[in-house]
Amino acid sequence: MSPADFRRIALEMPGATEATHMQHADFRVGGRIFATLGYPDERFAVVLLTPDDQAAFVAAAPNVFSPVAGGWGRRGSTQVTLACADTRNARKAITAAWQRRAPKLR
Questions:
Q1: CA 76 → CA 15, 65, 68, 98, 105, distances in Å?
Q2: Domain residues of the chain, as ranges?
Q3: Quick one: which of 80, 77, 59 has its CA closest to 68?
Q4: Is the dihedral of CA 20, 18, 75, 59 positive or negative?
Q5: Which of the residue ranges 18-27, 31-40, 48-57, 75-84 would you say has the lowest mean pLDDT?
Q6: Residue-wise pLDDT tens digits, 61-73
Q7: Hey, which of 51, 88, 101, 103 would disulfide with 32, CB 3.0 to 4.6 Å?
Q8: In what side-by-side order are the strands of the sheet with 32-37?
Q9: Cβ atoms 98, 6 nearer than 8 A
Q10: Helix crossing, 3-12 with 87-101: angle to 10°?
Q11: How confident is the model over 5-46, as pLDDT tens digits?
């Protein structure tokens, strides 16, 4: 998967916008970041999952998904190795991250 593919999928999420955070592209919904692109470098992206979702994604595709180092990773920040990702597994992870951050409808 290319960075452009990841960006396209992230921006397909309802209400998603692109901004910049710490010199990396990020994707937000309701002002809250749900994914970033280019961290720690252009070969990777990060999705902000729950720890349980992270464990499921890592178990299903350990060549694609891994916890970010340190405390952020323990809280669910999950690195995506773009070269190993495909549209299906990236879309599932991006959707899970978007759902976690999207404002709840009343």
A1: 22, 11, 8, 13, 24
A2: 3-76+86-94
A3: 77
A4: negative
A5: 18-27
A6: 999 999 999 999 9
A7: 101
A8: 17-21, 24-29, 32-37, 44-48, 77-81, 65-67
A9: no
A10: 40
A11: 999 999 999 999 999 977 889 999 999 999 999 988 999 999
